[in-house]
Amino acid sequence: MPVPFDPEIVLRRPLMAHLATQGADGPRTSPVWFLWEEGAVWMLGAEGSSSTERLMQHPACAVDIVDFDVDRGILLHLGLRGHADVLPKDPARFRRLLAKYLGPDEAQWNTWFVEQVADVENDENRFLRLVPESIFTNNVSYFRTGPDRIDP
């Protein structure tokens, strides 16, 4: 039986999400960093990238995020479903997303990574935005403790 939890517990953490899309060659998943703002999941994309192209053709998608800590016995699954938009990059939001994963001090960010992968100034960068039409949560944090659930 699903045990619900507050999705914000997972959405505020710097976890890896998986974006599931549909294309001409079938379903695909992509690991993505994300930012939760304004009731939407914002993910990095780029003009011409495979995920961006698939979403432009088939905007229906899903995002799954799992918070798994075997030592603490935490296992939280969050699923978001809906249709995504491909939007122009907003440099301020882009920086907030990067800060979630790289830290608040831009001077400490890995220069190579920013220049090659996550260049704030690159006009080809896009945002993939999913405003969820449905949200599913399941706290399975009893896998080690047996019927007693651990609260995250």
UniProtKB/TrEMBL annotation:
Occurrences of domain Pyridoxamine 5'-phosphate oxidase N-terminal (ranges): 11-129
Pfam families assigned to the protein according to its UniProt record, in alphabetical order: PNPOx_N
InterPro entries per record: Pyridox_Oxase_N, Split_barrel_FMN-bd
Gene3D superfamilies with a match to the protein in the record: Electron Transport, Fmn-binding Protein, Chain A
Name of the molecule in the record: Pyridoxamine 5'-phosphate oxidase N-terminal domain-containing protein
